[in-house]
Write a structure and sequence with these properties.
Region (Disordered): 1-25, 68-96
Organism: Rhodococcus rhodnii LMG 5362
Helix content: 25-40%
Distance between the termini: 177 Å
InterPro entries: Competence_ComEA_HhH (IPR004509), Endo/Exo/Phosphatase_dom_1 (IPR051675), Hlx-hairpin-Hlx_DNA-bd_motif (IPR003583), RuvA_2-like (IPR010994), Soluble_ligand-bd (IPR019554)
Transmembrane segments: 32-51
Number of strands: 6
Biased composition (Basic and acidic residues): 14-25
Order of helices and strands: HHHEEHEEEHHHE
Oligomer: single chain
Strand order of the largest sheet: 2-1-3-4
Shape: rod-shaped
């Protein structure tokens, strides 16, 4: 066969051409094993790279229900309900107090402040002050009159000119009976002989304080010192110093 090929080549070109040997790979058993190992290693490396780069699935936390912001309509309703509630209602001024405090002075056994339930009357206040003393005038008092907080009840006498007539002085200073008007004294006023009008003429001494001075004199006797004015209800240190040069004993 080789000869035929050579003849053909000789006939065509007129000269003999050498034939090129053909390369043939023979790996053998050892080479085949190495190739298999290389292929397996390449597959393993490829798998590792592909597995590492592939996205992993992460556990999604459960959704927590959150309150959605109120709509404009809901906000308006809330504001209306809040404004409708408003602050706690303040007690009405017309509500009756738990108790009333009344001053009872004059010819009573225990002159001073008495605490009474609302709706009490002048008679209740006089009884709370120990009742009237001998010679007290109750004709000028309306014993059925209701007393208010801050009132003062003067229990006087008709026979003693140094005591004012019985009267009820309200908390605002209004007097329920006639009383002497204020006047200026010509000289120092004698605390042991002055009547309500003369005492009322002193600066800073009104009908209530004048009655308190007379009440103290009736209960304790004569003043022996001007300093004893400090024991009279309504006369403090400042008022005492103001009255000191204007009175005498």
């Amino acid at each position: 066969m080789l000869d035929r090929v050579r003849d053909a080549d000789d006939d065509a070109d007129g000269e003999l051409r050498p034939t090129r040997p053909r390369t043939r790979w023979d790996t053998g058993r050892r080479g085949s094993a190495i190739l298999v190992l290389v292929a397996v290693a390449a597959a393993a490396v490829t798998y590792l790279f592909v597995w590492r780069d592939s996205p992993t699935s992460a556990a999604v936390p459960p959704l927590v229900a959150t309150a959605s912001p109120p709509t404009a309509a809901e906000a308006g309703e809330t504001a209306e309900s809040t404004s409708g509630a408003g602050p706690a209602a303040a007690p009405s001024p017309s509500e009756s107090p738990v108790s009333v405090v009344v001053s009872v002075v004059g010819l009573v056994h225990a002159p001073g402040l008495v605490t009474l339930p609302p709706g009490s009357r002048v008679a209740d206040a006089v009884d709370a002050a120990g009742g009237t003393r001998e010679g007290a005038d109750t004709v000028g008092l309306n014993l059925a009159r209701r007393v208010e907080d801050g009132d003062q009840i003067l229990v006087g006498t008709r026979s003693e000119p140094t005591l004012p007539p019985s009267a009820v002085v309200t908390g605002d200073g209004a007097v329920g009976a006639a009383e002497g008007g204020g006047g200026s004294a010509a000289g120092p006023v004698n605390l042991n002989s002055a009547n309500a009008t003369e005492l009322d003429s002193l600066p800073g001494v009104g009908p209530v304080t004048a009655a308190a001075i007379l009440s103290w004199r009736t209960a304790n006797g004569r003043f022996t010192s001007i300093d004893q004015l400090a024991e009279v209800d309504g006369i403090g240190p400042a008022r005492l110093e103001r009255l000191r040069p204007l009175v005498t004993v």
